[in-house]
Design goal:
By secondary structure, this protein is α+β, with helices and mostly antiparallel strands. It has helices spanning 2-14, 46-60, 74-85, 144-147, 166-186, 206-212, 269-273, 309-318, 335-338; strands at 17-32, 64-70, 93-95, 107-113, 117-125, 132-139, 152-159, 192-197, 221-222, 263-268, 278-280, 286-287, 324-333, 344-347, 356-362, 365-373, 379-388, 391-396, 404-411, 417-424. It contains 9 helices and 20 strands.
């Protein structure tokens, strides 16, 4: 009978939640605030790019905005923050730290809505081409101050070697293998997003296979739209092509029309299945400005009803790539964490690493029953602890558990009980 009641309680609790949405956008900004022998201040003018990017950002309004091909200068990143994002009364965007361990003439960018996310840490990995940047966030839950419970998201940005030679493909494989070797050393299932300009022509290429078929299944990535194949000049994938927006040469932008799926946002299994709060919103993955009818054509050729004309024009002016976007829903359970009796209070750091450091208050001396329960309502661990009628600390082992989501239940055996969820890292 107790197990049935517990399962009902858990089910009811998971039906009581608030839901938020995180909009993610990745974009290759095409030598933004940077010049080269072919991309100059004339054919890739910063003022023109700024005007176009402002329109695109206002149209999409992302919560996470990642970019490739920005000058490797803190001032260039700050310019986007101050002149593109935090304008017209908006002040909530923040940025990651610029890195260039690889000594490239281009860098990756991270910008995020600080009303929804807090940046916990950043890891930069050098390669022979460009840095790979890894950002760890936590979600600013509406009731974070009372539950001290939240959800975590890791965003990874990379820009793989361009070119269609065998050596170019080999270099791309080296880059993705370096990322996966690092993630394998962590061996942690989590909410991962991997975004960037991969410069890949088909999913069979080694660099892409490293991501989607890595030997450690815990860290494999998945295409949210499941559109794998040979993307180059293939009409079957025209709706997802991101490069090139031009057919005529400016001397800077690539030409040939839209015929390649170079730009991606990939997801981990956790996000695919909604295991830990974050979940991909079905059918939200889009290539902005792509209507599927512009194979080998410029994005602004003829009629393109996928976005307003002003946005299509801005996309043409801004870059030879199109941005990709997707939405993540955040399901934040409420009932489990918020059910506490004033006479029995339970606190502990969450997520949990190693042991659970419980701190429990009881208003009278009593014996407490402590249990760890899985998502199916099965009791995996139980013990009895004495409480002297004040705050007491207890260490609860977890080495027998796999990484994942669990409940811990503290009861006085008669009238009062507290059940809280926790994530075991």
């Amino acid at each position: 009978m107790k197990k049935i009641i517990l399962l009902i309680f858990i089910a009811l609790s998971f039906n009581s939640y608030s839901q938020d949405v995180i909009k993610v956008m990745h974009y290759n900004l095409m030598y933004y605030n940077q010049t080269s022998s072919y991309c100059t201040s004339s054919n890739n003018a910063l003022a023109t790019k700024d005007a176009a990017l402002k329109k695109i950002i206002e149209y999409v309004r992302p919560d996470i905005f990642t970019a490739n091909e920005v000058a490797p200068l803190t001032t260039a990143h700050q310019h986007i923050l101050d002149n593109i994002l935090n304008i017209n009364g908006i002040t909530y965007y923040k940025k990651g730290t610029m890195s260039n361990l690889s000594g490239s003439d281009l860098s990756n960018c991270m910008f995020y809505n600080s009303n929804k996310l807090t940046l916990l840490s950043q890891k930069n990995i050098s390669t022979t081409v460009r840095d790979i940047n890894i950002y760890n966030f936590y979600y600013k839950a509406y009731n974070l101050g009372t539950t001290h419970d939240t959800a975590y998201l890791t965003c990874i940005i990379m820009h793989l070697k361009a070119g269609n030679t065998a050596s170019d493909a080999s270099e791309r494989a080296v880059q993705t293998n370096k990322l996966m070797t690092y993630l394998n050393s962590l061996n942690k299932k989590a909410n991962y997003l991997l975004m960037g300009d991969f410069n890949v022509y088909a999913s069979a290429e080694e660099c892409f296979q490293n991501l989607i078929n890595y030997s450690n299944t815990n860290i494999r990535f998945y295409d949210p739209i499941n559109k794998l194949g040979s993307w180059n000049s293939n009409y079957s994938y025209a709706k997802y092509h991101t490069q090139s927006t031009h057919t005529t040469s400016t001397g800077c932008f690539a030409t040939g029309g839209l015929d390649d799926r170079f730009d991606f946002i990939l997801e981990s299994e956790y996000i695919k299945n909604g295991t830990d709060h974050f979940q991909y919103v079905n059918a939200s993955y889009k290539t902005v400005g792509q209507d599927g009818s512009h194979l080998n054509k410029a994005v602004n050729y003829g009629t393109n009803n996928s976005a307003p004309d002003s946005i299509i024009s801005a996309l043409y002016d801004m870059s030879d790539h199109l941005p990709v976007v997707m939405n993540l829903s955040i399901n934040q359970t409420a009932g489990v964490d918020e059910y506490e009796s004033g006479a029995l209070l339970v606190n502990f750091p969450n997520p949990v690493a190693g042991k659970i450091a419980l701190s429990i208050y009881s208003n009278t001396p009593k014996q407490l029953d402590i249990s760890i329960i899985d998502m199916l309502g099965r009791t995996l661990y139980s013990c009895h602890k004495e409480n002297n009628g004040t705050w007491c600390n207890y260490d609860i082992p977890t080495e027998f558990l796999k990484h994942g989501l669990y409940f811990i239940r503290v009861s006085d055996g008669k009238y009062k009980a507290v059940t809280k969820k926790f994530i075991l890292e």
